[in-house]
Every structure is written in C-alpha cells, then in structure tokens.
Specification:
The complex is a heterodimer. By secondary structure, chain A is mainly beta. Chain A contains no helices and one strand. By secondary structure, chain B is α+β, with helices and mostly antiparallel strands. Chain B is about 15% helix and about 30% strand. Chain B has helices spanning about 25-50, 70, 100-110, 195-205, 225-235, 300-305, and strands at about 5-10, 55, 115-125, 135-145, 150-155, 175-180, 180-185, 210-215, 240-245, 255-260, 265, 275-285, 315-320, 320-330, 335-340, 345-350, 360-370, 375-385, 405-410, 420-425, 435, 440-445. In chain B, the strands form four sheets. Chain B has a six-stranded mixed beta sheet. In chain B, strands 6-7-8-9-10-11 form a six-stranded mixed beta sheet, covered by helices on one side. Chain B is globular, with a radius of gyration of 23 Å. The chains are: A mainly beta, B alpha+beta. At the A-B interface, strand 1 of A face helix 5, strand 18, strand 19 and strand 20 of B.
Chain lengths: ~30, ~450
C-alpha cells in the first residue's frame, strides 16, 4: 500500500568547493 | 567480524545551575559524576545486550551553557592517544583526571568501547599569537576507550556552534581507529555539514562507521536530526551512529543507528524528558556487504530529460533565511520542474487523493546558506506548506494527510555530495520505503 503521509522529500546537496572560507572553524552565530 | 552490535544513548543531561562565576573543581566533578552515574547504568545494559561499542552525546557530562571561565573547572588535560594510556590502571599519570579514569574503567569493566564527549585543556604561552588570556586552549573533545580501558582516540571539534567556551583547533583533525569490527571515524555535531573532517574520513580514509555525538537542535523542514543524519549516512554510504542530547525545550532529540541502505533504529521524542538506549546489529564493512549501494550520478537523470513545463505561477518563499523558488502541486498527479540559477529540480508524482486542506510545493535553492553565507547548498525539495496559504510554504509543518502512490525527485546538481531525505507525518522516517537510483532519482519503493 501507499506510504504514510509525506511531510518532505528532499535532495540536500552540499557543494563544498563553493563554500566561502571566511570564518575558520568557529561559528559565531546561530544559522 | 562481519557484523557488530552498536549502541547509542540519547541522554537527558543533568545541567549545572546557571552561574556567573566558576564553581569549584569538586562541585564540577560532583555534577559530572551524576551524569556518569546514569551513563554507567546504560553502558552496563548495552554490554549485557552484547554491544561492542556505545556512543554517548555531546555535552553529556555538563551541558552547554558556559563561558570560557565557568567551564574551566570541568576540563581535564587529555593526552594524545599515542601515549598508550589506560586511565583506569594509571589514573595519576597525567595529573588530576578523575573523569577520564572513570570513563576508562566503565569501558574496561564492561568490556565495551565507549565514546564520551568531555572538555580538554592545553596550556599555552599567553605571549603566543593565538593563546587565550587564561593561558589555556579549551576544546570540545571526543574520547574513545577500548575494552581494556585504553584511550584509543581523541578528537577536538572543529566546527563550533556559538560555543564561546571552546577554542577552534588549528586545523580539522582526521581521527580514526581500527577494531576487529571495522574502521571508525569520529566528528561532532555541526562538523557533519562540512567537508573536513566528515567527507575526508569517508572519501580518503575509507572508514566503515562514523561515531557522531551531537547536541542537535531540530530545524524543520530540512535539518531535523533523524532526517538529515539518516540521509547523510545514505549519501555517504557508511554507518552513522548518532547519540543526541535530549532536551525538549531546545528541540534537542533524535538519535539513531543509520546504515547506508536504511535506518536500522532511530528515536525521536518531544513528549518526555526520558533518555533512550538504541541497539542494532550493523555490517562491520558496509562497502563489502551486498548489495553495497552503488555510487550515484546525482544529475544524470535530471540533465538527460527535457524539463517539464514550468508553471506560470511559480513564486518565491523562505526556508529559514534562504529564498527558494517554489511551484505548487496543483493536480493530484503530474510532472513539474522548478529552477533557480543552474539548479533545476524535477518531480513526477501521483497522490493517492488530493487533500483540499493541504498544499504541497516543489522548491529549488542554490547558493550560500543563511546569514553566515558560509556553506553552499543545492536543495530540491517537495514539502507540505504549513497552511493552504502559499506564504506559509517553507515554514515548519509537523503533520500531513496526503499520501503519495508514486514520487520521483531529481535535480541538476553540480556536486557529488547529495543527501536524500524523506520525512513522514509526525516526524517519522520511512525505512525501506524509498530508494535512490544510480541516475540520481529519489523514488518510492512500494
């Protein structure tokens, strides 16, 4: 039978090469 | 061993009283021992049930609300594992280390690998460029003890998240250790959203399983712990053992044992303040298990088809601070395309029945994420809007009525790192009910 009701279907891509490397490891604020 | 029994524990941390001034080392140890008392019972339980390894959460011994000064009494000097130290047998070799000695004894006495997250302090010369004013570097640190209680791994978290009490290591540490049941890698919480160490451990160090302590605050619709972590394991094709902290008021819940094909066990509880132990048997070497998920060419299908007709009334909406292009699923079945810059997302779908009280949209986003604009995201998403008002598309929704007979989602991704997420009503995963085809389509399986 069909699946449970769906909230979200996603393809979540991370293009690391295009990240901006301004801040080193630390993050000073919530996203 | 071909398989092993993994354990993760979602711990409701006993938090310290808020204070502006540092407590004594004795009071700090008193609080940490209250949390370790709980972990001790769980570690015994896991070992009795045959677990070879257990992961406990980030900040599990003392919580997260600190300044540089107030966390100091909780810190110990954690040596490099190369010193071959069993704190349980030699507790005074590196000064005052009561927490390390107790954790080591828990691993030794129960003959189980134990991962814990504690605080490390390293003296430095304050005239040194980066040395903090108190003369110590302070690190959010994972330690692993083997079945003899030996310290076999130490990892300093690199991607801190508003953690002013800790310092950032000079560079990301790539920490692995070998066992008879596979090669393990370690990182913490926010690290999972970045390339180093997370992707490098899989891509260049060929680890089989990642140990992942976290204090993850859930953010719908894309970054809820169980949803994103299970997708990361599938996308990276490794086991991911996730131990999250449990704190309902901060939206912190969601632990799991995730294999490349599908979640083995997961837990999500926004109703109680209870901890939860999860156990499951997992492949020690998922790459050698059959069928090992093949490498996916995420843009193959989407770049091979003619885009479906783009509907006139596409519109823009926000998910958190990111501006998505959306188009509505007007009919109960159809083929849709929505694009944003060089990313085009395609959806074929058929609903069991169109629910008049619900609106779904297909969305596309490509660009630097959020206010920090550090991470470059490419997202194709089909989601249920909070209400039938299109201005609420992208806002968190927790329940849905609409079932889908069929769906196929794909996108013209420029990256090879894509994590497939499926989240069902009441924040549930959908183990075994979907798959990713090697041409990059995310499709239903039933």
């Amino acid at each position: 039978g069909s699946s449970e009701p769906i909230l979200t279907l996603s393809l979540f891509g991370r293009w690391y090469a295009k990240d901006s490397h301004s801040i080193p490891g630390g993050t000073s604020n919530l996203s | 061993l071909d398989t092993f029994i993994a354990a993760v524990y979602e711990h409701a941390v006993i938090l310290p009283n808020e204070t502006e001034t540092p407590v004594s080392q004795e009071d700090a140890l008193l609080l940490m021992n209250k949390n370790i008392d709980i972990l001790e019972k769980i570690i015994k339980q896991a070992a009795e049930k045959g677990a070879q390894i257990i992961v406990t959460p980030e900040d599990a011994l003392y919580g997260w609300k600190f300044t540089r000064e107030t966390i100091f009494p909780y810190l110990e000097d954690i040596p490099d594992p190369q010193v071959a130290w069993i704190p349980c047998e030699d507790p005074h070799r590196f000064g005052r280390t009561p927490v390390q000695a107790r954790l080591s004894c828990l691993a030794k006495n129960n003959s189980i690998y134990v991962l814990a997250n504690i605080g490390d302090k390293k003296p430095c010369h304050s005239h040194g460029s980066r040395c903090p004013s108190n003369g110590y570097y302070q690190y959010n640190t994972n330690v692993v003890y083997d079945t003899e209680g030996k310290l076999v791994a130490r990892y300093h978290k690199y991607h801190l998240y508003s953690e002013r009490q800790f310092d950032v290591p000079e560079k990301p540490e790539l920490v692995t250790f070998n066992t008879t049941f596979g090669k393990f890698g370690i990182f913490t919480c926010f690290d999972i959203l970045f390339h180093d160490p997370a992707v490098t451990l899989v891509k260049d160090f060929y680890v089989d399983t990642i140990l992942f302590p976290t204090a993850w605050m859930n953010v719908l619709p894309l970054l809820t712990a169980i949803e994103f972590h299970s997708a990361w394991a599938m996308g990276m094709r490794v086991n991911l053992l996730v131990a999250n902290t449990h704190h309902v008021h901060l939206n912190m819940t969601g632990s799991g044992i995730y294999a490349p094909h599908s979640p083995k066990e997961y837990h999500y509880d926004m109703e109680t303040e209870l901890g939860k132990l999860l156990l499951s048997e997992v492949d020690a070497h998922p790459r050698n298990s059959s069928p090992y998920p093949m490498a996916v060419n995420w843009s193959a299908y989407a770049t091979s088809i003619k885009p479906f007709p783009v509907q006139k009334n596409s519109f823009q909406g926000f998910i958190s601070r990111d501006v998505f292009n959306f188009t509505e699923l007007f009919e109960n079945a159809g083929n849709l395309t929505i694009c944003q810059k060089d990313l085009c997302c395609h959806l074929s779908y058929r609903m069991l029945r169109k629910e008049e009280s619900e609106v779904y949209v297909l969305g596309a986003f490509t660009g630097l994420h959020g206010r920090r604009r550090r991470e470059y995201w490419q997202v194709c998403t089909m989601l249920k809007c909070k209400t039938t008002n299109l201005t609420t598309c992208g806002r968190p929704a927790e329940t849905a009525l609409t079932r889908f007979d069929m769906f196929s989602l794909s996108g013209t991704f420029g990256t090879e790192y894509v994590f497939p997420e499926v989240l069902l009503t009441k924040i549930q995963l959908s183990p075994g009910k979907f798959e990713v085809l090697k041409d990059g389509r995310l499709v239903n399986k039933n």
